[in-house]
Fold this sequence. Notes:
There is one protein chain. The protein is of the alpha+beta class. It has helices at residues 3-16, 32-37, 93-97, 107-111, 136-150, 166-176, 194-199, 210-221, 231-244, 247-256, 266-270, 297-305, 320-324, 337-348, 421-426, 582-585; strands at 47-50, 54-57, 63-72, 83-90, 115-120, 155-164, 182-188, 284-289, 311-316, 362-366, 371-375, 384-390, 396-397, 408-411, 454-457, 465-479, 485-493, 499-508, 520-522, 525-528, 547-560, 565-571, 592-596, 604-609. Strands 1, 2, 3, 4, 5, 6, 7, 8, 9, 10 and 11 form an eleven-stranded mixed beta sheet that branches. A hairpin with a 2-residue loop joins strand 19 (520-522) and strand 20. It is globular. 54% of the residues are buried. Residues 342-606 form the Xaa-Pro dipeptidyl-peptidase C-terminal domain. One of its GO terms (molecular function) is dipeptidyl-peptidase activity. Residues 1-17 form the signal peptide. InterPro entries: AB_hydrolase_fold, CocE/Ser_esterase, Galactose-bd-like_sf, Xaa-Pro-like_dom, Xaa-Pro_dipept_C, Xaa-Pro_dipeptidyl-ppase/CocE.
Amino acid sequence: MSSRALLSLLLALSLGACGVQSSSPGVDSTSPRAAQWQYTRAEEYPNTAKLPAQYIRMSDGVQLSVQVMLPADAEGKAVSTPLPVVLTQTGYNKSASGAIDDFAFNSFFVRHGYAHVAVDVRGTGTSQGAWEAFSAREQQDYREVMDWVATQSWSDGRVGTWGPSFMGITQIFTAAWQHPAHKAVFAIVPMADAYRDIVFTGGQVNVGFIPLWMGLVTGLGAIPAQPSAQALPIVLEHVLDAVTVFQVPVIAQAALGVNDQNYDSAFWRERSPIEVADRVRTPTFIVGGLHDIFQRGEPLLYEAIRRNTEAKLLIGPWTHLAASFGRGLPADGVPDLDTIALRWFDHYVRGMANGAADMPAVTQYVHGLEHYVSASDWPHPQARAARWYLHGDQSLSLDTPAAGEAAHSTLQIPVEGLCSVSTAQWTAGVLGLLPLPCFQGQNNLNELPLLGAVTYTSAPMAQDYYFNGPIAAELWVASSGTDTSVAVRVTDVDEKGVSTELSNGILTASLRAVDESKSRFLDGANLQPWHPYTAGSRQALTPGEPTRVQIEVFPSSALIKKGHSLRLAISSSDFPHGLPPLTDLSDQLLGTLRIHSDAGHPSSLVLPVVPLAALSGN
Length: 618
């Protein structure tokens, strides 16, 4: 199967075979909140037409491949008047991924009066150069591309940027340049922190997504737009660079733990949009997912950007593939993503007074409630920290533990969690296409004692219990060796005992150091611990000695219904989401992880609890 066919299959499955629904039941779409979303505008043109692909030269001489889609009349003739522009800068070969509408090109925008420009970033698709994933040179290209787009005959000098995933990340870096032509950002599932969000969550290599992603970029780059004397050398250059310059060397160094590639450094900071988000002055709409690979970073980008410009945040119940297309929308009055983006561009690019700024600031899907709700900001302004303590009888309660409560142990097995919703999540939703309960959210398999999980479960809730925002697990653990991995899952357990994963976190214990100046506190509790992940911050464990570790659990929004229970499941790994580099793995094999929960070692789970009244009116 070709890369083009594989991409088409994955996107089609994501959109069609995984429970797509047009709306959520039981919600009045004429409610005041729903009215804030409503927007319709007739198409201006019946057709679209693509201009021939061409090359534009960057300041260092590298040529990038670009193609333009324009509105066209009934006969297919492209318009000749200057238009507002939507720009997409992609690493997924516009010539291959462009075969899927709403990916590299979006005909919906074009029929509504926009020119749509797609550019292969350097070293990808049919562009020249070596790909080094959001490097400083690539970021400079983003500005030079904007210079070019703003001055073309089909452009009226006003540009909005759009696209999911890679194309969302390029938008944040582009907006940081504050180019005068850049009027609006619509970033779908963008990354914030390259190290913490995705590549080395908890200090461990993400062997689920990173090889898949780099392989996709490389594979699509090996598909020429059409066989030609110019195309073949570019394809060969991309493959050679992948093997010798970037993809293979980066993956190998990370897995082996050599050259300090497994520590946070300038290399990862340069590639992290959160480092430049405070420079964004372009109105920005962020779309994220509760099980997206960038689940952690999307609200952080919103939070940083909204301090300096208009910003909105929409988070659905999605993995990465599903979020890229807003699967299941419209629902609860929330329109499909194209309609939202059109409204955003019409207002901020074209200057139309259409109330785009009046859309809710934050809209999130709530697990358990199974509906979208809105809030005035993120984190939720009404959130308060609640600390749930682990107990020796494996219960979870708001009461502090007593002296002498029992500790519990689990084997250190580096491949636990293989059949879990986090595996579906960290393969970008690809494995979630398989009809297995564990990939759809059910966590009971991972909680069997033989597989190593230790669970702590609350009594059934006396009333609905709502939390929304970052989560932290503060655990006292001991290892039989000098290091261990600690993986946690927060789950909802129904009356029949079915445990559904809501979110997860992972940490290499020797990298437990916390920088409190960069952490998030709520009511005195560290709700989002920030770990430096540097060689200098590493602290070996003393075998058998209980040590406090603070684990960042990625943010979520969930309602634990009356009669359901809250559960924390603890194991020693979350594979393939995280695998310790080879240099760390040897310290974590064939040992035991022991969880303490007595008065002297009060292990706990900290949640951002929100009053149920906050759900009213949604």
